[in-house]
Amino acid sequence: MDAQLRRGVLDVCVLATIKSEDSYGYKIIKDLRPILELSESTLYTILKRLEEGKMLVVRSTEFEGRLRKYYHITELGLKRIEDFKNEWKELMGIYSFIEEV
Amino acid sequence: MDAQLRRGVLDVCVLATIKSEDSYGYKIIKDLRPILELSESTLYTILKRLEEGKMLVVRSTEFEGRLRKYYHITELGLKRIEDFKNEWKELMGIYSFIEEV
DNA sequence: ATATATACTTCGTGATATGATGTATAGCGT
DNA sequence: ACGCTATACATCATATCACGAAGTATATAT
User: Fold this and answer.
1) Cα(A48)–Cα(A53) distance, integer angstroms
2) Which protein residue's Cα is closest to nucleotide D27 at C1'?
């Protein structure tokens, strides 16, 4: 898929993945695999940005000797998803224009 | 609308605008206004990129003493629009995921 | 005269995705 | 014992991109 088009959904995809249950980096990538392929460097960049934007909070734990950081969505994160759904409607209008012309 | 989401459709919107009839910068902006607001610097950047990507060709003319550059879509440009439509289907799948979760 | 519309150009900046590379542990097969 | 793969996160350098700001220049309306 086109790189620019991806960019528009990456953040929200990650938020959607942790919406119903807290998750951690490696698992997010695996869970998203059927929907959207993304590399570790890309994901961790996104997670960091979402954290800075207070759309999720992090809880570091230790699991079988390894570090594991669990990400939990916040109210702002949930709002971001809702906003996206509204933006999607706008985008549908734009798509119609492209299709019809 | 979210900046990232915009990016995914800007190029194709411009191509769609000149698809049925050759047009020039200032007119493209006006025609797109109801669909998508975009500044001159943004448009001319896009036009330049599309030209470099051979998705359109340019013909400079003089109109009432002023320079006017007409943009004409190429086969590659038309293909770009068709590709976008296919990518849109993929994107719909991603949206469903976001909506359902 | 002055403001507005038309028309294109260039520069600098900030945001972003991604590949490459690195660190470290657990578990499995040979 | 050794190597490989999976797990798990971190950092850096790079390339792409949208956009505001500022500039050049003409025609038309007030």
Assistant:
1) 9
2) B64
